[in-house]
Amino acid sequence: EGGWVRGGGWDRHLWGGRFPTARELDGVTGACPAALESRDYHALWVNSAALRASRVGRETADPPGGAIRRGEGGEPTGVLLERAVELAEAAMAPVEPETLAAAMVEAQSIAHRWGIAAVHSLEDARALEAWQRLRSADRLRLRVWATVPHEALDGALAVGLRTGFGDEWLSIAGVKLFTDGALGPLTAWMFEPYEGEADHRGIPVLGGEELREAARRAAAGGLALHIHAIGDRAVAEALGAIAVARWAAPGADLRHRVEHAQCIRAEDVARFAEVGAVASMQPCHIAGDAAAADRHWGARARRAYPFRELREAGVRVVFGSDAPIESFDPFVGIHAAVARRSAAGEGWHPEHALRVEEAVRAYTAEAAWCAHDEARRGRIAPGCAADLTVLSRPIFDVDPSRIPGTASDLTVVGGEVVHRAF
Fold this sequence. Notes:
With 422 residues, the protein is of the alpha/beta class. The protein contains 14 helices and 15 strands. The protein has helices at 22-29, 48-53, 85-89, 97-113, 125-136, 153-158, 208-220, 232-248, 266-275, 286-297, 307-312, 330-339, 356-363, 365-370; strands spanning 5-10, 34-38, 43-46, 66-70, 76-82, 118-122, 143-149, 170-178, 224-229, 257-260, 278-281, 317-319, 388-391, 408-413, 416-420. The strands form 3 sheets. Strands 6-7-8-9-10-11-12 form a 7-stranded parallel β-sheet. Strand 2 (34-38) and strand 3 form a beta hairpin. Helix 7 packs parallel to helix 8 (232-248), helix 8 (232-248) packs parallel to helix 9 (266-275) and helix 12 runs antiparallel to helix 13 (356-363). It starts with a strand and ends with a strand.
């Protein structure tokens, strides 16, 4: 009573592709406002009480970079897309840093069970405060390479915050910018309309001159760009912004990244190499995205997750999990990059597959390079930090079907055993 019901994880593709409604949620939540994040975190399903608490109604305009799904007469149906989510978030009490810190301790243990010693993470001010609480209390046992959100760019520049500021446990990576949404809610920004969607090309969250100016200011101030881009139009916009950033800070070693880069035009593969952008990708999404990509992108799906093409063009490819959207489990991702199978188990554009050693390198040495720490991490060698894992089973020179289910028998971070399965 008096609070919000919070939760998430729903996936409309499991419901035949349709979006849920506030009325359906009303039946189980009653008068309490309820807000449930979609699995991909690009949509919010709210009930009628939440719509009222957020003052979202027929007359509420769609915010820039967002959309309110509507029914007859313009009435909100109960789903907020992209930046429209902020309309509801403004009515909720923020999660306190001590609550976040407690959750981070639990998540840290989960990461260790998968052999993970370091994470690259999007943060806000409260999350950074929570990480710092753990660092000050000597409870941080993950190396955190943290981006600040676009909304914090002015403040970061005002105090001279730069990429690399921090220590071996908690460092600033750069600034995170969002050009579009995701495939799930059909908000990924495309050049051509979605299949069967008339003129719908997704939702541009940040692009054009606004994106390029943010990129210029960030790079000139010493902050690397981590640009979320899933649709082919979003990827092209991100590469254009990185080109501006390279011009604004010539000679600066900032190692700009395009995050996700799920659908890439052939000409933009060459642009990745030309502007020196890193392709930061998550192969673990392949199984869940294959059917949706085929359905909504049609022939363009053959240009989704083109790992092999990017590597052969000289582009640095780095892999991650996109947790909490997917599991921390890197072995699911390694298998996906090698086997490239849909959820139904069918091969999906195998011409883009990598070898096991290439996929492992993308999770380790390439990730360390992105964090400007290639001299100390990402490999087991004299002089490097003792960040390593002993796997529960071999993954090299075996049938790829044996890779899923692998875990860590022993995880060591900075020479300290942080997980032991025996």
